[in-house]
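Q: Given only this backbone (491 positions), what sequence would you predict?
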């Protein structure tokens, strides 16, 4: 079924989840300080779950429970490894359950939600492996006269209580990227999942609790960012804040907690350069997925494509039919490629930004329509001016822009002309150009002959400029969640 057909709908009874509540100090609480809140499916508004609506008092209880767990020190490394390994296995067994929860609460197409569930398995497995091996080092104290007669070594010790604040777009795997390294590092964690998508996180917490995580080492408080999130980030007993979300909220949070380690993984308007000569056919194929997966709601969704003018017509001839063939509809339909945006306001924003770009001189090549169920038809715009919001801001929706360029230096300048710097992609057959791009593009990652939307869960992942100040991936997160302690022995 193509975009010319009606939006697809699954006529089956939607499953309803009943999470046990918030997890605080090893106990499940069915209601929060502000009662309960409903989680509704973005696609059709159906009820997904009722969860607690927490507040500052709930946050305080959770953080103090975490601080007490740290003082008890009753979760040794070998047991943390066991929990991480068993969580990976249990997630693997329950991938379909988690995939359906993801699909319902954030309208991620089911086949894409299954990929996220599988990635969460890998994230826990990598965290378990890193938990076995991270260690300090021996210091050659006797290399200088002041160290004579001393033996020195370092320990990697937990930084303290971790506050983990996660977004709606990867409600399971981005939770895993914060919770699993914290467990591996020996840091008690208080998690605040996105208020739109708390169900996957609560199901994961229930799984971990059932595997024997001691009381207080994992706490989950559900609720709004302005109530739960701010109270958590600024709590006096929180030592480390890990936040994934918008640049505006992230940097504002860091300003409110200047004495803490606040690590931010934020947004981007990811560029892709398609040079000549290059495998531009593969580039076009990948863009048709990378620009529209989960309706473009990814920090590294391919947004700005710069194509050499010699191949631009051929590239568009390859890209446009692929975009137009994407299937739109119910996220629970096995064939759906693109479903709803998270809110109807976001769908309206897509229309507003598209119309603005066209009014400023862009050509609308396909898409540009807001459809029923909050779906925005996958869109390709050619030649929007640099000041258009679809070009200079983070779209976070199913819109890709295409701009022609004449030489590679110009393409590098255009790609780097951004307040963001998460990941960039470059397709080229010339090694010299690839190396020049890797060296000159100011991004956390430069992916050669790949789209910027690619991520492996073990890689160092993060950005520069307004895109953040951290690197995620279990090994890198564990390093940040621990501190170096020097020990010397006078012999």
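A: Predicted residues:
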């Amino acid at each position: 079924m193509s975009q010319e057909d009606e939006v697809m709908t699954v006529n089956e009874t939607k499953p309803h989840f009943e999470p046990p509540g918030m997890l605080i100090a090893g106990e499940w609480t069915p209601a929060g300080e502000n009662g309960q809140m409903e989680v509704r499916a973005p696609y059709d508004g159906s009820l997904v779950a009722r969860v607690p609506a927490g507040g500052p008092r709930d946050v305080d209880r959770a953080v103090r429970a975490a601080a007490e767990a740290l003082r008890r020190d009753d979760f040794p490394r070998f047991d943390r490894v066991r929990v991480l390994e068993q969580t990976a296995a249990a997630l693997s067994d329950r991938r379909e359950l988690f995939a359906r929860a993801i699909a319902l609460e954030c309208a991620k197409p089911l086949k894409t939600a299954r990929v996220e569930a599988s990635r969460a398995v890998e994230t826990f497995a990598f965290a378990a492996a890193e938990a076995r091996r991270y260690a300090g080092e021996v210091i050659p104290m006797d290399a200088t006269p002041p160290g004579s007669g001393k033996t020195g070594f370092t320990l990697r010790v937990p930084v303290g209580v971790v506050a983990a604040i996660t977004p709606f777009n990867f409600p399971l795997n981005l939770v895993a990227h914060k919770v699993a390294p914290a467990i591996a590092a020996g840091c008690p964690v208080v998690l605040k999942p996105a208020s739109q998508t708390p169900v996957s996180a609560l199901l994961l917490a229930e799984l971990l609790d059932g595997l024997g995580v001691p009381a207080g080492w994992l706490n989950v408080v559900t609720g709004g960012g302005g109530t739960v999130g701010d109270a958590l980030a600024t709590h006096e007993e929180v030592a480390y804040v890990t936040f994934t979300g918008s640049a505006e909220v992230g940097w504002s949070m860091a300003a409110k907690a200047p004495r803490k380690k606040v690590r931010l993984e934020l947004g981007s308007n990811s560029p892709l350069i398609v040079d000549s000569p290059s495998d531009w056919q593969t580039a076009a194929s990948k863009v048709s997925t990378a620009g529209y997966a989960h309706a473009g709601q990814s920090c590294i969704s391919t947004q700005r494509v710069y194509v050499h003018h010699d191949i631009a017509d051929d590239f568009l001839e390859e890209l446009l039919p692929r975009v137009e063939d994407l299937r739109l509809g119910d996220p629970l339909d096995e064939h759906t490629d693109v479903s709803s945006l998270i809110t109807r306001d976001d769908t309206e924003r897509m229309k507003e930004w598209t119309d603005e770009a066209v009014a400023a001189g862009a050509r609308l090549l396909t898409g540009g329509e807001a459809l029923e169920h909050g779906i925005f038809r996958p869109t390709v715009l050619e030649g929007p001016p640099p000041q258009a919001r679809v070009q200079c801001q983070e779209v976070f929706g199913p819109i890709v822009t295409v701009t022609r360029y004449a030489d590679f230096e110009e393409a590098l300048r255009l790609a780097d002309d951004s307040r963001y710097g998460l990941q960039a992609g470059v397709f080229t057959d010339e090694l010299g150009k690839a190396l020049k791009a890797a060296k000159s593009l100011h991004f956390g990652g430069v992916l050669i002959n790949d789209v910027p939307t690619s991520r492996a869960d073990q890689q160092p992942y993060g950005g520069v400029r307004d895109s953040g100040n951290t690197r995620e991936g279990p090994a890198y997160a564990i390093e940040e969640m621990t501190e170096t302690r020097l020990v010397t022995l006078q012999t």
